[in-house]
Amino acid sequence: MNMLVDGEWRTGAYESTNEEGEFERQTTSFREWVEDDPESEFPAESGRYHLYVSYACPWAHRTLLVRALKGLEDHISVSVVDPYRQNDGWEFSPDRLGCTADSVNGAAYLRDVYTKADSEFTGRVTVPVLWDKERDTIVNNESEEILRMLDTEFDAVADRDVTLYPEEYRDGVDDTIEAIYEPVNNGVYRAGFAETQTAYEEAVGDLFDALDHWEGVLADRRYLCGPELTEADLCLFTTLVRFDAVYATHFKCNVRRIVDYPNLWNYLKELMQLPDVAETVRIDHIKEHYYRSHAGINPSGIVPVGPELDFESDHDRERLVGGPPEEVRH
């Protein structure tokens, strides 16, 4: 795989699989925590932190969603990498639509940010990255933990009084995020990067068993954990919004599309239509990244024109009890 080894960039196999041909995701390395405590090592402060993201990446997308829903745009700055990830890894291409320069460290590649934090870093260079401008280092590069920090530790500076991790739902939120991770969030990658028929079919079976399950849950429940929007919904959303455009074809997850699931499709449309959510979704970046960056899957690099997905059409979720937080409603 393309990665840093003792601070030096190495190119090789693109993704990692085990001896059974199953995709294995690398664990993240930076795991410090921002806290709503002025005495902590990383206190939650307006203007102190910076996010490095890709619009293409579902893991980075989670952090953009919570940043938008809580109104943290003026408090946590963002740099966006080029969706086309080549042999040099994530690159800053400020002249491309939707991309930016690295406004904090002036890096040409995201790997330079990693080596600034740790000159002997070994591992994959991934998004998202939460950077501390004051201590001049990476705080965290684990998407679920960054999402949780932005949701729970920045209330004092957020422009909206929104919680996506309500006290009464916390066990359910944690359990649901864990339940959807392996079969759904990671499941599409397990299918797409499988190198044996057996590994692929196992991943696809797990994926659609899970989608069928959540289709049933959403038949009489507004959101995954009940009547309130939570972090769990953001974690599922970022996979669902990419599914029909990319995963169904590029990753061969074609048993059914999301539009073929009445409840999942209407649920996806409701979330997409929340204020500020659509601005975090760049289908052009998503399609370019997957279809052009994965040469082992799509050697031609041709990006398909379709499908046409009408995320703005009416949904039926108002029939169920609950709804989005008052502060993020139209």
Structure notes:
This protein is an alpha+beta fold and 330 residues long. The protein folds into two domains: 3-152, Glutaredoxin (3-Layer(aba) Sandwich); 167-274 and 309-328, Glutathione S-transferase Yfyf (Class Pi), Chain A, domain 2, CATH 1.20.1050.10. It has helices at residues 58-69, 110-117, 143-152, 170-185, 187-192, 197-217, 231-247, 262-272, 283-293, and strands spanning 3-5, 8-10, 49-53, 76-80, 129-132, 137-140. It has a four-stranded mixed β-sheet with strand order 4-3-5-6, with helices on both faces. Strands 1-2 form a two-stranded antiparallel ribbon. α1 (58-69) runs parallel beside α3 and α7 packs across α8 (262-272). The protein is globular. The relative contact order is 0.15. The model has no long low-confidence stretch (mean pLDDT 96).
Q: In what order do the strands lie side by side in the largest sheet?
A: 4-3-5-6
The major beta sheet can be summarized as: 4 strands, mixed
- Mean pLDDT, as a whole number? 96
What's the total helix number? 9
H/E series, N to C?
EEEHEHEEHHHHHHH
- Unreliable spans are none
For the record, what is the CATH homologous superfamily label of the largest domain?
Answer: Glutaredoxin
Q: CATH topology of the largest domain, which one?
A: Glutaredoxin
Architecture of the largest domain, CATH level 2?
3-Layer(aba) Sandwich
- Total domains, how many? 2
The coarse silhouette is globular
What's the number of extended β-strand segments? 6
**What's the Cα radius of gyration?**
19 Å
CATH domain class of the largest domain: Alpha Beta
Strand proportion, as a percent range, falls in 5-15%
